[in-house]
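Translate structure to sequence.
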C-alpha cells in the first residue's frame, strides 16, 4: 500500500513551476463555486507519519486558496470541558458550515492509530473505535459533509533526513516535535497501523489518499490535486443499509398511543402530597456528589396542549436553575440549516453535573419533518439509527437520558385549545400551526408510533404517558425521573 510513497518520488522545480499556476487558479475557482452553492462542506482529515510535512502542506494550501473560508481545526489532548462530554462532541462542535472547508489535525483517528501502533493492540478496542468512526463519517456524509482523508507518507530514511535538516537550523528547528523524533523507533508499527486503518475505513464517501511526502513539491501538488478533485466531483452518499438497524426496518409498529389508558386520574390532595415528596427526592439526587460525575438529559415530545410546559415547570421547581438549561426547540435557524441535522443538539448537551431539558428535541426529524415533508424519506428513515447512536454516545459517557411522550386524546386537546383561546394568560399558546397539526392527527400518531418502536432503548427509554389528567401526568414524569436517578446514582 505504501510502496509508491516509500520510494520517495520527487518533482523537479521546473515541473512544479509548470503546475503551480494552474492548480492555484483551479483551487480558488472551485472554492468560490463551493461557497456560492453552499450545498455541502468539505472536511479534510490530515494524518500520517510524524515529520512528513503535514503542516507545511496545509500552510501552502491556505496560501493557494482564500484562507478566510478555511477553518483549521487542531485537536490535541482533550480539555477539561471536552473530557466532560462524549469523545465526538468536540468534532461536532467545530464542523464547518456548508460552503466552507475544515482542515482537521488530531482527528478522531488518533485513538485508533495509537491503539493500532501498540506492540500488542487490543482487537476489541480497535473494533469499537473503528465502528464509532464509521458511524460518524457515514452520518456526516449523508448530511452533506464531503470527507477526504490524507495520509502523508515517506520512507524512514527520508523522514530521518528531513528531521535532521530542520534541526540543523535555528529558524526551522521549532518545527520538529517530540513525536517526530520518535518515529524511527516505531516506524514499522506506524506503517502497519496506517495500513490497517486505511484498509478498514476507506468507504467511497470518505476515502483515503496517500500523499508522497519526501519531496515538498510532490507533496504540495498531490495535496492540491486531491483537494481539487474533491471540490469538483461530488462523493457518493452512503447506502441506506449503513443506517438500518436489524430487525426493525420492516416491522409494523404497535399502536402504543392507542393502547394508553387516558382515564386515569389523581385527586388534588394526593397530587400535592406526591408532588412535594418527588420534588424533594429529585432535589437531593441532583445535588448529590454522585451526580457530579453524571449529567441528565430530558427530552419532551407529544401532541400540542399535552402539558409539556407544565411538566417541565414542576421539574425545574426542584432544581437550582444555575445547574439546568432549558432548550425550547423550534424550526432550525439559517446557521443550523447550514450544518448536519444533529449539530444543533450536540452543541446543547450538558457537561457533567448539569441538566438539559429539551422542549421538543432531535425527534423533530422523524415527526414534524417527516409529516410535513421537510425531510426526504431517506433522511427521516436514516434518522432512527443516527438518533440511537447519538443517545448511546451520551449514556456511554455517563449521561442519564430520559424521553417523554405526553399523549392526549383529540377531544381533550380540543377542549384545551378552546380554553387557551378564552384565557388572556394562555391565548398566546394557541397558534394556526396547532390547528393545522390537529388536522393531521393520524399522520402524527403513526409517525410517533414508528418512532417509539424504533428508538425505545434500554439506555434511553421512552416514557409514554396519557395526560388527559394533568396532575397524574406531572407526577408520573417526576416518578420516572427520580426512579432513574436513584437507580443509577
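Result:
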Amino acid at each position: 500500500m505504501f510502496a509508491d510513497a516509500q520510494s520517495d518520488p520527487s518533482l523537479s522545480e521546473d515541473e512544479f513551476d509548470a503546475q503551480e499556476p494552474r492548480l492555484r487558479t483551479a483551487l480558488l475557482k472551485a472554492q468560490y463555486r463551493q461557497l456560492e452553492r453552499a450545498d455541502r462542506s468539505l472536511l479534510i482529515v490530515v494524518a500520517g507519519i510524524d515529520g512528513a510535512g503535514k503542516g507545511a502542506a496545509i500552510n501552502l494550501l491556505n496560501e493557494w486558496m482564500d484562507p478566510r473560508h478555511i477553518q483549521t481545526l487542531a485537536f490535541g489532548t482533550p480539555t477539561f470541558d471536552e473530557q466532560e462530554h462524549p469523545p465526538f462532541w468536540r468534532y461536532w462542535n467545530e464542523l464547518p458550515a456548508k460552503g466552507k472547508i475544515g482542515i482537521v489535525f488530531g482527528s478522531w483517528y488518533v485513538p485508533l492509530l495509537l491503539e493500532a501502533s501498540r506492540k500488542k493492540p487490543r482487537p476489541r478496542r480497535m473494533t469499537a473505535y473503528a465502528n464509532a468512526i464509521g458511524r460518524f463519517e457515514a452520518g456526516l456524509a449523508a448530511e452533506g459533509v464531503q470527507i477526504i482523508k490524507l495520509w502523508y507518507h515517506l520512507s524512514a530514511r527520508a523522514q530521518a533526513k528531513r528531521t535532521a535538516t530542520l534541526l540543523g537550523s535555528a529558524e526551522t528547528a521549532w518545527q520538529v516535535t517530540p513525536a517526530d523524533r520518535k518515529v524511527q523507533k516505531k516506524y514499522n508499527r506506524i506503517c502497519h497501523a496506517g495500513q490497517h486503518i486505511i484498509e478498514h475505513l476507506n468507504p467511497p464517501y470518505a476515502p483515503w489518499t496517500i500523499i508522497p511526502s519526501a519531496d515538498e513539491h510532490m507533496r504540495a501538488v498531490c495535496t492540491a490535486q486531491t483537494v481539487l478533485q474533491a471540490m469538483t466531483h461530488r462523493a457518493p452518499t452512503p447506502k441506506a443499509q449503513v443506517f438500518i438497524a436489524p430487525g426493525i426496518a420492516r416491522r409494523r409498529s404497535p399502536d402504543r398511543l392507542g393502547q394508553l389508558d387516558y382515564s386515569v386520574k389523581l385527586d388534588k390532595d394526593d397530587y400535592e402530597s406526591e408532588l412535594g415528596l418527588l420534588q424533594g427526592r429529585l432535589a437531593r439526587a441532583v445535588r448529590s456528589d454522585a451526580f457530579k460525575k453524571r449529567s441528565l438529559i430530558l427530552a419532551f415530545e407529544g401532541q400540542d396542549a399535552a402539558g409539556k410546559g407544565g411538566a417541565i415547570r414542576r421539574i425545574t421547581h426542584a432544581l437550582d436553575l444555575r445547574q439546568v438549561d432549558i432548550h425550547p426547540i423550534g424550526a432550525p435557524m439559517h446557521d443550523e440549516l447550514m450544518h448536519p441535522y444533529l449539530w444543533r443538539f450536540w452543541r446543547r448537551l450538558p457537561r457533567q453535573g448539569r441538566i438539559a431539558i429539551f422542549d421538543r428535541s432531535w425527534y423533530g426529524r422523524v415527526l414534524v419533518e417527516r409529516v410535513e415533508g421537510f425531510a426526504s424519506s431517506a433522511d427521516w428513515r436514516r434518522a432512527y439509527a443516527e438518533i440511537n447512536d447519538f443517545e448511546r454516545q451520551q449514556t456511554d459517557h455517563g449521561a442519564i437520558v430520559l424521553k417523554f411522550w405526553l399523549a392526549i386524546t383529540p377531544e381533550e386537546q380540543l377542549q384545551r385549545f378552546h380554553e387557551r383561546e378564552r384565557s388572556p394568560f394562555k391565548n398566546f399558546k394557541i397558534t394556526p400551526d396547532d390547528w393545522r397539526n390537529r388536522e393531521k392527527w393520524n399522520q402524527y400518531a403513526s409517525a410517533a408510533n414508528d418512532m417509539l418502536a424504533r428508538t425505545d432503548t434500554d439506555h434511553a427509554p421512552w416514557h409514554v404517558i396519557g395526560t388527559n389528567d394533568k396532575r397524574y401526568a406531572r407526577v408520573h414524569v417526576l416518578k420516572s425521573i427520580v426512579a432513574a436517578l436513584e437507580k443509577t446514582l
